[in-house]
Amino acid sequence: MLRHFPKTLTAIGFGMICSATALSAEGLVVSNWDGYMAPDAIDAFNTASGNSAELVLHGTNEEIMGKLIASKGKGYDVVFVSSPFAEVLHNLGLAEELDHAKIPNIANLYEQATKLEHDPGNAFSVPYAWGTTGLCYRSDLVADAPDSWMDLLAPADAVRGKTTMLATDRWLLGAGFLAKGYSVNETDADKLGEVRDLLIEAKDTLLAYDDATFYAKLVSGEAELVHAWDGWCNYGIAENADIKYVIPSEGSDLWVDTMVILKNSENKDAAYSFVNFILDAKNHGWAAENILYKVPNEPAMSALSADMFATFPNMGITPDVLIGYEQLRDVGEATRAYARAVSEIKAAD
Question: Could you tell me the pTM of the whole model?
Answer without folding.
Answer: 0.91
